[in-house]
């Protein structure tokens, strides 16, 4: 996949000679544009034409306006088209025309690349590919962050060439693919490009996209050109398994031929980088000075690539880590080894084609196996790199959820631009299959086997089209986020259920408490009543005794008036009542 | 024609400028004691009236005009605002109508002639932005040209808007047969035949031979030419004033 930020719209102006066909450069974000249709973007941005609220504004009129303006611009793409030029030829409200004009200009359908240097434009009009060196030369001007100048189509990948009707471009691709040395895409001078990839130190031979090793001249026949024009040396093309670090390397390699070579980090440079990071923190200027051979953005990219890079930065920002650079170098080495080993793990037959140097690495890495295991088992603690986290998260979230998330991510990316769709659509099926097949495995596998699954997943995701690494990374990121979100939702639901349960138990306890209290009160009341009856009984008996006593007294004839006073008061009262 | 009536039957709205911003054009041409002050600008009718006097004072101070101009400016602006307010609150019949607007003006040394189509019912239009684009596309350096074009556009839109109000009013009163038909037809004449261009048989692409009609023409005059023109205008103005006095 080309990292190009541009897409070429082909004009069927000259059917006889496809090489003489005019190619126009429009931004990749405007890939939705079709001559024979009206896209939703247009409907959204210029709703006036599609509401049917006006007689003079209807889709047909819109298309006439649009087509005329674009055609007018393409009469001479090097010349900037102004609104005043356009409106004299169009019948209609100038305010509306202006809005439409600005819309087309904003999307780069017109005036994109206007004002370019004449030679570049001329070359583009001829449809002849410039040599890669020339494209990166001074004729390309970066202005206001936007690409200027109409440039020629970079060689299309074969799969593309087949899809598209542009036979000429396809032939050119095939030719350059055979050449080996000429493979690669010229990058547009986008600002984002220079930020991310920085400068490249010149090397001579192309690099293998997998192992990063220089391919010697004799190996050229063995090399495979992957979709997107990457070189893969013979041994790696057998295994076709890559891990995240190599993916990043790959994306670095994309423009390897812009300056004739790619930049690989030597161990010494990496050591220097780590030292510098420890010493200077995140002052990248100083770090770049320390490393000397690499640019600032290179250093940043490299540190991010390192499996423990984030961790290092994190610990540095907090407190200065006491790890010595020697240990780190050792870590680095083991990591690299383990990754290499990992990439081979699933496929045992790889070793047969290995060169001696490679075999050494394999031997070392076998010894490091325990380290690797530890590394992957703790992969959730942010010391690992993105792809692993993606894989782990997808495993954690469940295969079907992950598949759905990946699907959504891919769809969204596809909607964003068509190039991504082309890159992803090939792998969509494999990805989904891999997710579900992994799901089947998942049930049978225990935790210890997870690291076996990871490379497989990586394999499926990374299979074949390394050129789309950027898109793939994004898709993977989004997938990871989706998977994480799904996981989080599961957690949230679980927590909520837990909370509801707890709440229910609390309420139950409260109810029971009240019931106990009620029972207690009932008992109390009961005792009270009993006591009351007892008292009543005793009262009656006392009364009866009194009556008896008085009767006896009467019989005895001792009747005295003052005896009345002897009556206990409560009884009197009681009787009165 | 059926579809046309379908779309043109919009509910009447309250009178305002048929542009995104409700700014009205103000033109000043004041002569006191042989000293002349001409100006054109836009005014937001929602601003408080006290702003007028502030504006007048400020202008007189900046242009070093005699203080007598203050009251004259205030009167003139107030009169034009009052005219606008007399229309405010009345119903305006918004009919989809695309009219050709003509620009023919001279600002300092720059002469601009232009013609373009304007949809009077497009309430999102922005004459100032249009004028800015025009000046940018034509590389007009004089910063006074853009605003002058915008004011010229607004004046014509204002005229059309007031006509649509008065035509409505006269159409109602026209039953008494007081030359209502005359004013009613006037704006209709200049408006574009929409069916001809936007109907299913028409084309919105103008014929190449007609392009020159809708193309802006810019002339940069030399100072001598400007002087001669100024003198002629002065003369015409005096003659006109004398004629007015005689009447």
Question: Biggest β-sheet of chain A: count, sense, barrel?
Answer: 2 strands, antiparallel
Give the averaged pLDDT of chain B, no decimals. 81
Give me the Rg of chain B, rounded: 20 Å
Uncertain segments of chain B are 1-9, 177-188
The coarse overall form of chain B would be globular
Oligomer: heterodimer
DSSP summary, beta strand count of chain A = 6
Number of strands of chain B: 7
Give the strand content of chain B.
15-25%
Q: How would you describe this structure in keywords?
A:
heterodimer, A: 577 residues, mainly alpha, Arc Repressor Mutant, subunit A, two-stranded antiparallel sheet, two-stranded antiparallel ribbon, 25 helices, 6 strands, elongated, disordered N terminus, disordered C terminus, B: 247 residues, alpha+beta, 2 domains, three-stranded antiparallel β-sheet, 7 strands
How would you explain this protein's 3D organization?
Chain A: Keywords: DNA-binding, Nucleus, Transcription, Transcription regulation. The complex is a heterodimer of chains A (577) and B (247). Among the domains of chain A are: 28-107, Winged helix-like DNA-binding domain superfamily/Winged helix DNA-binding domain (Arc Repressor Mutant, subunit A); 267-307, Orthogonal Bundle (Arc Repressor Mutant, subunit A), CATH 1.10.10; 382-424 and 466-553, no CATH class. Chain A is 60% helix and 3% strand. Chain A has 25 helices and six strands. Chain A has helices at residues 40-45, 59-75, 83-87, 94-106, 118-126, 132-135, 158-163, 167-179, 191-197, 234-239, 244-253, 267-280, 284-291, 296-305, 309-318, 325-344, 356-367, 369-377, 386-397, 399-416, 418-444, 450-462, 469-556, 563-566, 569-576; strands at residues 6-10, 23-27, 142-143, 146-147, 224-226, 230-232. In chain A, α12 (267-280) packs antiparallel against α13 (284-291). Mean pLDDT of chain A is 61; it is low at 1-20, 116-262, 316-383, 432-455 and 573-577. Chain B is built from eight helices and seven strands. The termini of chain B are far apart. With 247 residues, chain B is α+β, with helices and mostly antiparallel strands. In chain B, the strands form three sheets. Chain B has a three-stranded antiparallel beta sheet with strand order 5-6-7, with helices on one face. In chain B, strands 1-4 form a two-stranded antiparallel ribbon. A two-stranded antiparallel ribbon of chain B has the order 2-3. Chain B is globular and about 60 Å long. Chain B has helices at 2-8, 50-63, 68-87, 127-137, 145-173, 180-190, 194-198, 223-246; strands spanning 13-14, 24-32, 35-43, 91-92, 98-107, 110-119, 217-220. At the A-B interface, α2, α3 and α4 of A face α1, β6, α4 and α7 of B.
